[in-house]
Amino acid sequence: MSKYIYDIIKQGEHQQLDFKFEISDARKIAKTLVAFSNTDGGKLLIGVKDNGRIAGVRSEEEYYMLEAASSMYCKPEVPFTTKRWQVDGKTVLEADIPRGDEKPYLAQNSDGRWLAYVRVADQNILANSIQVRVWQNAHKNKGIYLHYTGAEEQLLSYLDEHGKITLNRFCKVAGIGRRKATQVLTKLASIDVIKIIFTEKQTWYELPGKKPGPDKAED
User: Fold this and answer.
1) Of 24, 139, 142, 154, which one is least surrounded by beta carbons within 10 A?
2) 81 phi/psi in degrees, rounded to 5
3) Would you say 20 and 55 are in contact if contact means Cβ atoms under 8 Å apart?
4) Which residues face 126 on adjacent strands?
5) 140 lies in the same domain as 109
6) Is the peptide bond before 98 cis (omega within 30 degrees of 0)?
């Protein structure tokens, strides 16, 4: 049994795996829960430090904090399953969070705001309003009417040549305001004509299957 946990720990933290030494703040863990649910699902190992060292959970309180995070600080509630493992005399709590089908999942922060997050590598990244609208559009029964205007044509032409673009750059290239640019990006992302790329420092937009450009898109 301990080999199972050690094999997981050897992977290191990544998009579908996060280590938590302890759960002391239900709101913080809620952010991780929604990030997993909004992306590809994932696994939490509680009682494991960031460096992979097993410290063990202290009490039943860890489970109840996880439950509180899901039920009180996630909207909609994020489902999860747990298993307890005894590893070298210490208890590790394994929590599995499936990929959600009710996106966007939102977590409440300390200011009472409900925010959406995505999981990128080993980080929980704040999702922008365009991604939230794309998720919301996926729940609508009616299709999206696609009519290419000059803005759409300029966007696709730019992406074909440069590979990626930010919202600010699109506004400049097309000579339009942020509201119009947001509408165009949302529409095209909703029908998979473009894809949204999140990083810790920047969000940009690419054509699916297009060879990625530099790590940082031009503002």
Assistant:
1) 142
2) -125, 150
3) no
4) 117
5) no
6) no
Q: Is residue 218 part of a domain?
A: no
CA pair distance 210, 23, nearest whole angstrom: 40
Across 29-54, average pLDDT? 97
Q: Is residue 54 domain-shared with residue 133, that is, in the same domain? A: no
Is 212 inside any structural domain?
Answer: no
Structure tokens at 52: 């992979």
User: Which of 92, 125, 158 represents a domain boundary (last residue)?
Assistant: 125
pTM here? 0.91
Domain with 152, as residue range(s), is 129-206
Task: List, for residues 84-105, the tens digit of each pLDDT value.
Answer: 999 999 999 999 999 999 999 9
- Residue-wise pLDDT for 122-158, tens only, equals 999 999 999 999 999 998 765 666 667 789 999 999 9
| Alpha carbon distance 149, 12 (integer Å) | 46
Pair 13, 72 in one domain? yes
Return all residues near 118 (Cβ < 8 A) that are at least 6 apart. 35, 38, 39, 124, 125, 127, 131, 198
Residue 26's H or E segment, with its range, is: helix 26-38
> Structure tokens of 62?
């860890």
d(CA 68, CA 25): 10
Q: Distance (Å, rounded) from C-alpha 137 to C-alpha 216?
A: 28
